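Box S1 | Example of a co-folding query
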Amino acid sequence: MLTYEKLDFNALNRADFLKFVEIEQNCGLDDPYPPELIFEILEAMDNFVCRADGEIVGFIMMSPKSHYLHGSAYIVNINVAAPWRGQGIAKKLILMACRHYLKTCPEGYMSLDVVKTSRARALYRKIGFGETVIPSRNGPSDLVMAAPMKLLEKNLIRLTEA
Ligand SMILES: CC(C)(COP(=O)(O)OP(=O)(O)OC[C@H]1O[C@@H](n2cnc3c(N)ncnc32)[C@H](O)[C@@H]1OP(=O)(O)O)[C@@H](O)C(=O)NCCC(=O)NCCS
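Box S1 (continued) | Returned holo structure for coenzyme A
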């Protein structure tokens, strides 16, 4: 059974931390985050996880602020373990994050950096993210996408809860 929750850093155990490290190392991207950075992000950011029978199979790491856009939360990292992809887990994690920030920021935006050639770009477009002309801090290989969280929530409810 799949369950979703906002991670409580103070309750983080070793098995959970090692799952973050394993999923990140096997994500297929060129420059996965090292374990030390994962630990720092877990401590400093808002993190939401999906578990299958208790074991973490996907996560989203969120910053409540973006350096690109005022009034925007920012997706630091989103990752679903390869055997679990294509089942709507990423969409549900983004929906959870939207709902979390909409409580205090109903007109807020969400933004992210994405590698232009990545398959994730199609996912973001499908759920309502638009491509901006803001230069990515990762260089020309990436672009910055953004969307109002209200719009994302509406689209994600349709796509995941229909
Ligand atoms: C991108 C990622 C988080 C999507 O997670 P997911 O749970 O498979 O996504 P969902 O099931 O909610 O949505 C599937 C969509 O994601 C996109 N997608 C991207 N990579 C995919 C993959 N390897 N397998 C299946 N779908 C993928 C497709 O557009 C797909 O569209 P569809 O709904 O029309 O089939 C996941 O593929 C992943 O972890 N990739 C490696 C890390 C990564 O690229 N992170 C994003 C950095 S910006």
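The beta strands are 2-6, 46-52, 55-63, 72-80, 109-115, 130-131, 142-148. The CA atoms of residues 21 and 36 lie 9 Å apart.
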